[in-house]
Amino acid sequence: MIDPGVGEIPTPEVAGTGSRSMWKHINVHYRRIIHQLSRLIGINSISGLIDFFLDHGFPASKLLWGLPTYGRSFRLCSVNQHGFKARSEDIGEAGPIWRKKGLFTYEEVGRALRNGATRVYDEKCRVPYLFQGKLWLTYEDTESAAEKALYFKNKSAGVAIWNLNLEDPKGKDSGISFPIVKAVRKVYWPGMLISMSIFSLSQSIYLSIYLSIYL
Q1: Residue 3: pLDDT above 60?
Q2: CA 15 – CA 130 distance, rounded (Å)
Q3: Across the chain, how many H-helices and E-strands are there?
Q4: Which residues contact residue 163 at a Cβ distance below 8 angstroms, ignoring those fewer than 6 apart?
Q5: Coil, helix or strand for 104?
Q6: Residue 177 to residue 55: CA distance in whole angstroms
Q7: Buried (b) or exposed (e) across 5-21, using 16+ Cβ within 10 A?
Q8: Which of 2, 74, 86, 125 is deepest in the core (most CB within 10 A)?
Q9: Domain interval for residue 183
Q10: pLDDT tens digits, residue range 175-186?
Q11: Nearest residue to 159 (alpha-carbon basis) of 24, 14, 11
Q12: Which has the closest alpha carbon to 25: 165, 153, 142, 121?
């Protein structure tokens, strides 16, 4: 029984950066409760967790699914194995701008692709990843974000985008400011125009902005 006073339950990363297996393709703001639950019930996919919650009577209106604007990097065990369930030996390198080990902002992902990394769209997981040598990076782009937003729209209260300062606020990668936010917006409000230019984001000021989008 869910208390009526409880708001939305955020559902973040299924596994943290300590995971050794590359099955984890959806990475959203790690929280231990979801990680432990997925291990306990043996489910390591977002669709499986959605069905688990709903099948056990959890109100769809209380589920808020996380969507990241950043990627998680890992160091592969072998340069010849980079696909589904490829093994990693450690957390990956830091991105060149934020310099946080294991994390690439959306802008840093774009830079990696321009510098020769190979993008692969995993048709099974419905999300892109890139690799270059032993670097392996799972992330969201506009295609996967829109697809997940549509899926979550029909299954839950919506999505929570985490977070705007790891997005591409000036459109350096795609020429569009906040491309992931705008891709999600088109799913929920196709005709609505939104300006994100009011945000002044920099490396020196860490703005944690939690944007919730509801049905």
Answers
A1: no
A2: 19
A3: 5, 10
A4: 29, 69, 207, 208, 209, 210, 211
A5: strand
A6: 39
A7: eeebbbbbbbbbbebee
A8: 74
A9: 1-215
A10: 888 999 899 989
A11: 11
A12: 121
Does residue 142 surpass a pLDDT of 70? yes
Distance CA 158, CA 76 (A): 33
Q: Specify the long-range contacts of residues 6-11, CB closer than 8 Å, at least 24 apart.
A: 6/62, 7/62, 8/62, 8/63, 8/64, 8/157, 8/160, 8/212, 9/58, 9/62, 9/63, 9/64, 10/64, 10/66, 10/160, 11/46, 11/49, 11/63, 11/64, 11/65, 11/66
Residue 111, pLDDT above cutoff 90: yes
Instruction: Write down the pLDDT at residue 209.
Output: 39
The per-residue DSSP string of 190-205 comes to TT-----TT----SSS
The residues, ordered by sequence, that sit 6+ positions from 114 with a Cβ below 8 Å of its Cβ are none
Give me the number of domains the chain comprises: 1
- Number of residues that make up the chain: 215
Is residue 194's pLDDT more than 80?
Answer: no
Euclidean distance between CA atoms 95 and 110, whole angstroms: 11
pLDDT tens-place string over residues 159-175: 888 888 898 888 887 78
Percent of the chain past pLDDT 90, that is, above it, reads 30
Q: Record the pTM.
A: 0.73
Q: Supply the pLDDT for residue 191.
A: 60
Amino acid making up residue 36 = Q
Q: Which amino acid makes up residue 112?
A: A
Q: How far apart are CA 207 and CA 203, in angstroms?
A: 9
